[in-house]
């Protein structure tokens, strides 16, 4: 069963690079703020690189104008996430989060078995909107799709 709107986010530790590798727990990441976290099956993969991440980069300032921070997550290591962010021109302030062992992804109940593609356990493609650690919006894609978790759809469906 996956996390639902209205539920408190589970506790886990993610990593990111900013002058070295840093660990951040989900309480610190989501606590006291509004944040959209979108997750992709893999950095550098086609849909993730051509559509999903670019959409959030394009609309980053719109989210920020609404007082909402934006972070990207994948079941990759922090070095891959940093390299992907650099290659895509991610704006300063958008965290590229690594869930290397899929701990947070599993805690959310949003894991994807991509072993048939040689990728092991990954995250489903999704976006969630949280206010102070409570899920207020959740958009999970059906396998192989990219529609509901887009930046445009999330912006159009943010709770009032």
What does this structure look like?
The chain has a five-stranded mixed β-sheet with strand order 5-4-3-8-9. It has a two-stranded antiparallel sheet with strand order 1-2. Strands 6-7 form a two-stranded antiparallel ribbon. Helix content is 29%, strand content 29%. The mean pLDDT is 95. By secondary structure, the chain is α/β, with parallel strands linked by helices. The protein has helices at residues 26-30, 46-58, 60-65, 78-88, 103-108, 151-156; strands spanning 13-17, 21-25, 34-40, 68-74, 95-98, 111-113, 121-123, 126-131, 134-140. It is globular.
Sequence-ordered SSE layout with sheet pairings:
Layout: E1 13-17, E2 21-25, H1 26-30, E3 34-40, H2 46-58, H3 60-65, E4 68-74, H4 78-88, E5 95-98, H5 103-108, E6 111-113, E7 121-123, E8 126-131, E9 134-140, H6 151-156
Parallel strand pairs: 3-4, 4-5
Antiparallel strand pairs: 1-2, 3-8, 6-7, 8-9
